[in-house]
Structure prediction request, 276 residues.
Amino acid sequence: MSLKYSERASVGYAALYASLNEKTIFVEDAKGRIIHERIVESIIGPGRVRRIIPLNGRLPLLKEWEKNKLNDNNLYILDGDLNLLWGEEVDGTNIVQIDAYCVENIIINELNFRKLLEDYDLTETQTEEIITSIKVSISEISDKCLGLFILYAIAFRIRKIKTVSDGILRFCSQIKIEKNRVDKRKRELISAIIKEIGFENFKNQKELIKNNILSSSISRERFISGKDFILPMVHKIVESKAAYKGPSTILARQLSRHVRPNDAGNYRDFIRRHFP
Prediction:
């Protein structure tokens, strides 16, 4: 049975081991802890981190980091979230904002899916059909939902409007995104945003975010939530075509077994700096 600690107890646990010069990594989400663990192990090998502790969200993590900015025994990993679309970064030697919407984006790629499907009794033709379906789905999500996420990023700063928690499935019929449903939600968001900040501010902010995305080296799908948008769609594909059993959270953990350092981008660089 795994033990769960409160935020206060978790921070105290890290402080207890600080004198031993053992590093503790703090992350946002408890569901992503194992994924972080496997990413870190892929970069530096096992046994070099004392513990990876989730702090239940971005704000609690930033609050704890503010107290420990100069303590390199504590490392802090932030998801990119909607801040990524704004081009915002966090400045500190012991903190990094990953160059992906969330940690799940790091494990979503063709090679990891191929490795996963090796465990299933599939013909080569069946495997290629599933891989093609996954690639088409991710491309479709990028094409149809990036504009939605630009609106989410603007709405996020207003704080009154529901954003990514919508999830992808409300826009889907079976394993297909219905463009008319996405467009309807975009119209709702635009109306709500303009009501709060006016048309000119909306237009300027939208242009700023578009320019940030265009000038970035990050692939388009990494600006879209892997956890709430891409993974649920891919989960449906492997359920229907590979007879996969289990929730999308377990699928993510299985994919993370195959993660490679180069998948992790600036997360890899950050970890290597602290574990030479």
In short: Strands lie at 24-27, 51-54, 74-78, 95-97, 172-173, 176-177. Residues 1-5, 12-21 have pLDDT under 50 and may be disordered. The longest strand covers residues 74-78. The radius of gyration is 20 Å.
